[in-house]
Amino acid sequence: MCMSTIAVIDYGGSNLRSVAKAVETVADARDRVIVTEDAAAIARAARVVFPGQGAIGTCMQRLREAGLVDVVRQAARSRPFLGICLGLQSLMTDSDEDGGTDCLDIFPGGVRRFPLEPPPAADGTPRKVPHMGWNEVAWTGPHPLISGITSGARFYFVHSYYVVPADDAVTIGQTSYIGTFTSALAADFVFATQFHPEKSSQAGLSLLRNFVAWDGAPD
């Protein structure tokens, strides 16, 4: 049996094991899921998952220290690549977090913070930052990774920052909280989400299952 490797990038962040376990749950018997910081192993992998929680400044510093910046950029341009939460934000040009941080610049655009004191919802319900909990994602178009997942399906979020792509065409999912923001981005070999598929019950597992089966070919 010919094994296919799915690499979960380990840059020293948290939540890696839960992501790996979720991918293993939906993976084919021929798929081997590894959690690794080894650049050569990531470069050899058939698919790459870049999860993340925490601060973007620390994330980018650890990527540089581990020599992973170039291999992450190359993976995103050449094979099925799934970014999750901070793994989405890192793909942008820069972030307001940590006093301003240069990111991977794979997609032009920035990462902005929700207001420190957001106004209440229309019904008077207070809104807090971080945006934490279940919320709906409205798809803006078709994509293999969202096949079988209804627009408006609920996913789990934990974040204080959100991405603002320079090109609206890369937005594949939108969510309303305080305002409407890009909660999923897709272009060529990349699909990236602000929400956590690994924490999002059946909708999240369906997205991960679609990723494992996706060949990454642009539509």
What does this structure look like?
The chain is an alpha/beta fold. The chain has a single domain (4-213), classed as Rossmann fold, CATH 3.40.50.880. Helices cover 25% and strands 34% of the residues. It contains six helices and 13 strands. The strands form two sheets. It has a nine-stranded mixed sheet with strand order 2-1-3-4-13-12-11-8-9. It has a four-stranded mixed sheet with strand order 6-5-7-10, with helices on one face. Helix 1 (16-26) packs across helix 6 (201-213).
Keywords:
alpha/beta, Rossmann fold, 6 helices, globular
Total domains, how many? 1
Indicate the CATH architecture. 3-Layer(aba) Sandwich
So, the CATH homologous superfamily?
A: Class I glutamine amidotransferase (GATase) domain
Rg over CA atoms, rounded to whole Å, is 16 Å
Main beta sheet strand tally, sense and closure: 9 strands, mixed
Strand arrangement within the widest β-sheet reads: 2-1-3-4-13-12-11-8-9
Q: What is the percentage of strand-forming residues?
A: 25-35%
What is the number of strand segments? 13
Distance between the termini: 29 Å
Overall geometry: globular
* Helix-residue proportion: 10-25%
Brief summary of the model shown:
The protein has helices spanning 16-26, 39-44, 56-65, 69-78, 86-89, 201-213, and strands at 4-9, 31-36, 47-50, 81-84, 92-95, 101-102, 107-113, 131-139, 153-159, 161-165, 171-177, 179-187, 190-193.
Write the layout of secondary structure elements.
Blueprint: E1 4-9, H1 16-26, E2 31-36, H2 39-44, E3 47-50, H3 56-65, H4 69-78, E4 81-84, H5 86-89, E5 92-95, E6 101-102, E7 107-113, E8 131-139, E9 153-159, E10 161-165, E11 171-177, E12 179-187, E13 190-193, H6 201-213
Parallel strand pairs: 1-2, 1-3, 3-4, 4-13, 5-7
Antiparallel strand pairs: 5-6, 7-10, 8-9, 8-11, 11-12, 12-13
Helix pairs in contact: 1-6
